[in-house]
Write a structure and sequence with these properties.
The chain has eleven helices and no strands. It has one domain. The protein is globular and about 60 Å long. The relative contact order is 0.14. By secondary structure, it is mainly α.
């Protein structure tokens, strides 16, 4: 898979990055780590620029997120399950994203953009919960822009060793997930204590 991703970006540049990231948001098994770090590497070897890569990848992230938001918004549960099977989504990951969204609220859309797999799936519970489009769009664009810029920049540093980053992403996802849970728990505890004092 990595070989054709690399060849596609080499041939079509920004358009390839836009399309690949849009598809990656809908079909998470395509690795954004490879797409974006190679995009960063291409900046050092071609006339492509950092701003263009950041813009095209973030636009792709947003379009892909909108598709999943729409699926969560419009699909009935039984049809939604068929969609999960079709694209080989892990039902447990979807349930985890739903739980994070229910527990932490709409800001989860922003924070989960930094967690592999969940960063895509969080758009589904946002749609199912009928989250307003303006905050969904804002959190998605800002979170995706940060994630994309970091990976693109790492690609410029790693050079032709860009593929090394993919090996660390699974461990990174676990660590970030734990950090998000701790921050969420601390925020909830402070809120409850404040409410208790006010009562």
């Amino acid at each position: 898979m990595e070989t054709w991703i690399v060849e596609f970006i080499e041939q079509f540049g920004y358009l390839a990055v836009f399309l690949l990231i849009a598809v990656e948001n809908i079909f998470p098994p395509i690795p954004s780590e490879i797409i974006l770090t190679f995009a960063g590497f291409m900046i050092t070897k071609s006339g492509l620029g950092f701003f263009g890569m950041a813009f095209s990848s973030t636009l792709g992230s947003y379009i892909g997120a909108l598709v999943l938001y729409g699926l969560g918004y419009f699909l009935r549960p039984e049809k939604f399950e068929r969609f999960l099977n079709l694209f080989k989504f892990n039902l447990e990951d979807v349930e985890k994203a739903q739980k994070w969204f229910n527990d932490k609220g709409s800001l989860t859309v922003f924070f989960c953009r930094f967690v592999p797999i969940i960063r895509s799936l969080i758009s589904i519970p946002a749609g199912m919960s009928r989250m307003k489009m303006l905050p969904f769009s804002l959190y998605t664009v800002v979170g995706s822009l940060i994630w994309n810029c970091v990976l693109i920049y790492i690609g410029t540093i790693l050079g032709d060793h860009y593929g090394l980053i993919s090996g660390y992403m699974e461990q990174y996802g676990i660590v970030v997930g734990i950090v998000i849970v701790i921050i969420g728990a601390a925020w909830l505890t402070m809120k409850l204590m404040k409410k208790k004092k006010g009562a």
